[in-house]
Design a protein that fits this description.
- The chain has 168 residues and is mainly α.
- The protein has a single domain (31-156), classed as Orthogonal Bundle (Arc Repressor Mutant, subunit A), CATH 1.10.10.
- It is 68% helix and 6% strand.
- The chain contains eight helices and two strands, in the order ααααααββαα.
- A two-stranded antiparallel ribbon has the order 1-2.
- Helix 1 (2-8) packs antiparallel against helix 2.
- The longest helix has 23 residues, at 139-161.
Length: 168
């Protein structure tokens, strides 16, 4: 269904990408993959908490400490929402607060062993869904798609990091 909608209306690659990205955004907005995972596997927490755990994991992998204040930026939510999600993750035993030795008002957030195990299961499920979506693709097609998609997302992220230098 989605492929036909995208392919049939596109005359330029940019148009096809735009249509595909709109479909992806709609799927993300309705949390299609997360909802399916939660229903099929009875996952312990909401998709929003899983998103928070994803952000904490990514920051840790980059060697950065994460606080609730950082999560407001990373998740594009307000402080009360970030704090509520962090509390839910802590209550579920997936995240822990660590006191900052330099500043007693701050506490860093870190995945627990259960949080890491939970995210491993989430990653496995997501990857199984992507594998199914690429069923029938050759190994070379999968590799090219992964490379191009990664480059595309990196370029979008880089464009977001460019601060405007002039005002109109």
């Amino acid at each position: 269904m989605y492929y036909a909608d995208v392919a049939s209306k596109s005359s330029l690659p940019e148009q096809a990408v735009e249509r595909a990205m709109v479909i992806i955004r709609r799927r993300q907005t309705r949390q299609a993959l997360a909802q399916r995972a939660q229903a099929r596997h009875g996952l312990a927490v909401s998709p929003a908490v899983t998103g928070l755990l994803d952000a904490v994991e990514a920051e840790a992998a980059a060697g950065r400490e994460v606080t609730v204040t950082d999560l407001t930026r990373l998740l594009a939510v307000d402080q009360p929402r970030a704090s509520k999600l962090a509390r839910q993750a802590v209550s579920a035993g997936l995240l822990q607060r660590l006191a900052d030795q330099r500043d007693g008002r701050r506490s860093a957030l870190e995945l627990t062993a259960d949080g890491t195990g939970y995210l491993d299961a989430v990653h496995s499920y997501r990857q199984s869904q992507f594998t199914a979506a690429m069923d029938g693709w050759t190994d070379a097609e999968r590799a090219v798609f992964a490379d191009l998609l990664t480059r595309f997302v990196a370029a979008l992220e880089a464009a977001d990091d460019i601060a405007p230098t002039t005002t109109s």
